[in-house]
Design goal:
With 538 residues, this protein is of the alpha+beta class. It has two domains: 227 residues, Periplasmic binding protein-like II (D-Maltodextrin-Binding Protein, domain 2, 3-Layer(aba) Sandwich), CATH 3.40.190.10; 216 residues, D-Maltodextrin-Binding Protein, domain 2 (3-Layer(aba) Sandwich). The protein is built from 19 helices and twelve strands. It has a five-stranded mixed β-sheet. The longest helix has 26 residues. The relative contact order is 0.18.
Length: 538
């Protein structure tokens, strides 16, 4: 794209608030009402072909979702890509960013090295998290598209699937079934991630960015609980006693943040402990919300007894993490990815994910992906080039390509530690895959590896082994509901606000039925009907 088009794309955020009508135009013709999979010929999911790389120290289990664990960095790296993917052309990709802007490619050794390895001039359009929804809506309305566009990151965009169906490339013939074997590293992405991305109109339109199977859970101060004689495996009474026992002298057992109340996040661990289904259950072919099950109600009643940090509703996620790190709170609800960040922050105590506190627990799985990337419509040869670029960036842990994409250039961004592992340099603090987020174009399936911290690897692998075999999936994951696409954020807000009101005493437990009635009336009941139809088709 020329400079004027690029500025138009990233600088027109003010137009996004009025983008709804313009987006509706993408819904015309054959695209209208076609995003569902009911009655369609379904493209087969990409065939799963695991990467034959360095053997892990702790075995994974593709069936249950337990990740392979590495106590040390592999000594002998594999070659994951045979030929240079690109043809020297420019490739523009629009992705989310959570970091500071990187140095331009002319001054950035990591960017230059990746471009050389990819054989393309990869131009990243990096959109800050706080602006992502507005900027994405603007781009979708403009029709002026980059080659690669990332969706997801926890955001639901209005008519997202309609836009993709109308404006983006159908990849079914290139990656459906055994065709994905032409891209071995994409074939290494497990099936749950593809299914979490889902089909649109029966077809495959994207490449998912994998995330492990565990969903939101509870991170604990294991040292404090062990000191108090609290066992790792507990029941509901033991959990309640432990949290109350920690509370006092300006300390609290349970920490939560405002972002935990944007939906059912804060209830996920407890609902799963009480055996509640993961958001929905399918009963005689019909979807029934977990919020109206007896198990969820029991979990909610139990949660009203817990000693929450009193300012949870006004505390940011960042501040809550600090409160956990300094041991003001003994636990905090967070996503699975928080474990890795916690390993670098917690130095004074041992932490761990909490096991469910009931034998009939149904721990909730996540959706298997952070997001997914789609391609602008183009010739078959161009689409194959873009898939080869994604294939390189998805090179698995234990490969030379993974090392470059995730750690940089040896001697510049890292050196070899005493154990042969990665020791990052000062340059890596400013040139890395956070400031330069190639990982949101495509990425390898994650493994458990924490440099220099084998005990943290063992703890997480053990937690997964104890938890995932009895975990349950969200049956709506990867299905299409027009109501949920349009109103999902509003419906989650109804639940999050309701949970906050009940847990902090603004409403009584008896008012949960009224909250649920409001949720159904605003689209929850309609979404259940649509998911039932889609589930039957899938």
């Amino acid at each position: 794209m020329d400079r004027r088009s690029l500025l138009k794309m990233i600088g027109a955020g003010a137009l996004a608030v009025t983008a709804g009508p313009a987006l509706t135009a993408c819904d015309g013709g054959s695209a209208k009402g076609a995003v569902g999979n009911s009655g369609k010929n379904l493209t087969p999911w990409p065939t799963y072909v695991p990467f034959a790389g360095p053997k892990p120290d702790l075995a994974g289990d593709a069936k249950t979702g337990v990740q392979p664990g590495y106590l040390n960095y592999p000594a002998n790296l594999a070659q994951a890509v045979k030929d240079k993917p690109g043809d020297g052309s420019d490739v523009t990709a629009m992705v989310i960013t959570y970091g500071t802007p990187p140095k331009p490619v002319e001054q950035n050794q990591l960017w230059a090295a990746l471009n050389k390895a990819l054989g393309v001039n990869l131009k990243l359009v990096m959109v800050p998290d706080a602006e992502f929804q507005k900027k994405m809506a603007t781009v979708m309305a403009s029709g002026d598209l980059p080659d690669i566009i990332m969706f997801g990151a926890g955001y639901y965009l209005s008519r997202e699937q309609d836009f993709i169906l109308s404006q983006c490339a159908d990849l079914s013939d290139l990656i459906g079934g055994d065709n994905v074997k032409a891209y071995p590293n994409l074939a290494n992405i497990p099936g749950y991630s593809w299914k979490g991305m889902g089909r649109i109109g029966g077809k495959l339109y994207g490449v998912p960015t994998e995330r492990p199977m565990p969903g939101n859970s509870l991170i604990l101060n294991r040292s404090a609980l062990e000191k108090a004689g609290v066992p790792r495996d507990w029941d509901a009474d033991g959990f309640l006693a432990a949290m109350k026992g920690y509370t006092g002298n300006k300390k609290w057992g349970i920490g939560a943040s405002a972002s935990n109340f944007t939906g059912p996040n804060t209830a996920a661990y407890h609902a799963g402990s009480f055996g509640a289904p993961n958001l929905w259950k399918v009963e005689n072919g019909q979807f029934v919300s977990t919020y109206e099950t007896e198990q969820f109600r029991k979990a909610l009643e139990f949660m009203t007894k817990l000693p929450y940090y009193p300012d949870s509703l006004t505390t940011s996620a960042v501040d809550m993490k600090s409160l956990f790190y300094n041991q003001t709170v003994a636990s905090m609800t967070d996503g699975f990815g928080a474990y890795q960040a916690t390993t670098t922050k917690v130095k004074d105590f041992t932490f761990d994910f909490a096991l469910p506190y009931a034998k009939n627990a149904t721990p909730w799985q996540g959706n298997g992906r952070f997001g997914y990337t789609v391609f602008k419509k183009a010739s078959a040869d161009r689409l194959k080039l873009l898939l080869r670029v994604c294939d390189y960036l998805a090179s698995p842990f234990g490969s030379k390509e993974y090392e470059l994409a995730n750690f940089g250039v040896e001697g510049a961004h890292f050196t070899r530690g005493a154990d042969g592992g990665i020791a990052l340099t000062d340059l890596a603090k400013v040139e890395n895959n956070t400031t330069l987020p190639f990982k949101y174009v495509a990425a390898a399936p994650q493994v458990i590896y924490f440099p220099g911290m084998p005990d943290a690897t063992r703890r997480l692998h053990q937690w997964e082994s104890d938890t995932l075999p009895r975990s349950v999936a969200d049956p709506s994951n990867g299905l299409r509901s027009g109501t949920w696409s349009a109103s999902g954020a509003q419906l989650d807000k109804v639940i999050g606000d309701g949970l906050a009101a009940v847990l902090f005493g603004r409403k009584s437990l008896s008012e949960w039925d009224a909250i649920l009635k409001d949720w159904k009336g605003k689209g929850g009941a309609k979404a259940a009907e649509e998911y039932s139809t889609e589930h039957a088709a899938a």
